[in-house]
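Worked example 2:
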Amino acid sequence: MGQPSFLCDTNQLRHVAVVKSETPLPLGVGYYRRFLFCFPLQNLTPLLDCQYNSYTLRSHTLQTKLRPYQLEAVTEIRMHAAQWAASGKVVESTDEPQKGCVLQMPTGAGKTATFCDLIMGAYNKGKCAIMAVRGKELVHQASERLTREGVPHGIYQGAKTKDTHHRVLVCSIDTMARRGIAPESDLIVLDECHLTHSASYKWFLSNYLNTYKLGVSATPHHKDGMGHIGNKLIYPITINELIHQGFLCGARYFTPYIPDLKGVKKTKGDYNAKELSTKSIKDEDLTASAAKVWDKNLRGISTLAYAVSVEHAEHLARSLADAGARVSTITAKTPDAERASCLDGLQSGGLDVIVSVGVLTTGVDIPSLGAILCCRPTESYNLWIQILGRGTRPFNGKSNFVVYDLSGNLLRHGPIEAEIIADMEGMTEPPKVKIIICEECFATFERLPGVDCCPSCGHDIPAAQKARETGKRIHGLTANDEVVEHVVEPWELEMGQLIKMAKDRGYKKGWIRYRIQEQHGEEVANKAWHRIKVLRKWPVKTKKQQEDQAHFTNSLSNSFW
């Protein structure tokens, strides 16, 4: 009697919780999602709330306590799902508005904990959930996190496929498309959803037109938008608020070298890999600058370096090793055990630098990381922000991390703090940030009113040196190049984001002022208010409407997940 005896089709065990018992015990009977089963009563104490002859499965809860903005995101997602459920609309093709939403949260903000809460909700209600990802790193990371949170799950990933009877599945999208598998599910979670425009993802999603889909990414930006996932963007908090509240670390930027990329062609919107690799390997100034930066500024600081190709990585690694660095290279072909050993070495201090090629941009957490050395030029805003996101996680004694940009990406795309809100219909241009490069230490920063010296080394900024605007085409610029004169303050970047959030949620204008005051103080909030109060009015929800909506959401969302 170690196993319960199931009075249902054993092929449907994906919907049934199995309870083991080591000794013969009296049996009880209960119902769980349409299936009748028998179980030993005494061994179910951890799983059952018992009162007389009534037995119900106790809900699992996350081990990780959600932060306020994560709870806000969960509420908005459930509210949107409830609205779809109430509409009764049936989606018949991929050309129609899709049943789902996209959650945009900065790297390190806790996206995994947020969607794990939703998956747990589905699990507790006897529902099925699928988490679809691309790449073995993300499969492993997702499985590891679900295990840590106590969510029983199976895996579809090549030869590592196992336990597929579970109601929660972590799936490699390539395995699913190759095998033509689309299991039943009540919720689809798409991690790193900016990568979901491939043919395999399109086939996969075509099987779930009327299943609620949640796309998750720090950079849900694509020229074709995110409409293939859903019709709503959820954006609960800005990266600057997360830094201000201590949940993330900010960056300090330095631009000691800008490569000349004239003559390098572009393929599919980015630099041609072969031409860029050849150019980078031949650029001895780039190689020498990387070694000099590490030797002078990054000794004793765990560093991730990004290269263009395997050949370029090996070339860069040799130069760093000659400067005295303990360095390893990780590529897409590096064995899992070796990759894990390298990452452990960087975390523990056994390695100084890891040079990465095409990996370590998503699905890797190194909280102790102190520096990013970027030698990989890219036209991809998403890739640049994902690279920077590796350093934002807080760690004991870590107040910020440093970025040495030897690629020109900072001037192409701007700092991670100048994030953009995704457009569900297409790609939005990054905001233009006006920055100065210090002639002495190469610190790269915004030139704000009243600031006449470098915040890093104290070097005087010549009055004639004007700020340059990010997003301009760059070919071997020097620190004295004149580009623009106008200066944008940090709160101005956030105000546009907050205005969009207020309109989407039906908040009053005063909410925007309050959020700005909370982070930047009353003087800045007053300055912002002069611009906010003259904005055209938008529909605002009354307190009763908000309460009614919350009640509506709870009554409906509780019925599914």
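Residues 509-545 form one domain. The mean pLDDT is 79.
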